[in-house]
């Protein structure tokens, strides 16, 4: 009697060819830098995380741009507010 070895186990699923949610997350992160950072930044992060769960290639970039847009937009907003009102 011969032993043929362990059964075949497939590897991880291939990445998703679509980058739609990632691109939406990148655009929202870029918009968050200038306009309404909390709203657009958080929406971009959510799109990036969902894209990451779908294994889209650009998902880490979308998450990074959205976080940067959120943080830098908030800092820019504080600086502009202080400049306008002298606080």
Note the total helix count. 3
Roughly what percent helix? 55-70%
**Helix and strand element order:** HHH
Rg computed from alpha carbons, rounded to a whole number of angstroms: 21 Å
Distance between the termini: 85 Å
Strand percent estimate:
under 5%
Number of separate domains? 1
- Largest sheet descriptor: none
- Which class best fits the helix and strand makeup? mainly alpha
Folded structure, characterized:
By secondary structure, the protein is mainly alpha-helical. It has one domain (20-85). Helices cover 68% and strands 0% of the residues. The protein is rod-shaped and about 85 Å long.
Compose a concise summary of this entry:
With 87 residues, the chain is mostly helical. It contains three helices and no strands. The chain has helices at 20-34, 37-53, 59-85.
Provide key terms for this protein.
87 residues, mainly alpha, 3 helices, rod-shaped
Give a topology summary.
Elements: H1 20-34, H2 37-53, H3 59-85
Helix pairs in contact: 1-2, 1-3, 2-3
């Amino acid at each position: 009697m011969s032993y043929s070895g362990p059964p075949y186990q497939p590897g991880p699923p291939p990445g998703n060819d679509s980058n739609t949610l990632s691109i939406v997350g990148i655009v929202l992160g870029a918009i968050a830098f200038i306009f309404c950072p909390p709203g657009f930044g958080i929406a971009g992060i959510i799109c990036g995380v969902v894209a990451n769960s779908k294994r889209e290639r650009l998902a880490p970039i979308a998450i990074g741009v959205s976080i940067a847009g959120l943080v830098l937009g908030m800092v820019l907003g504080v600086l502009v507010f202080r400049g306008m009102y002298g606080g």
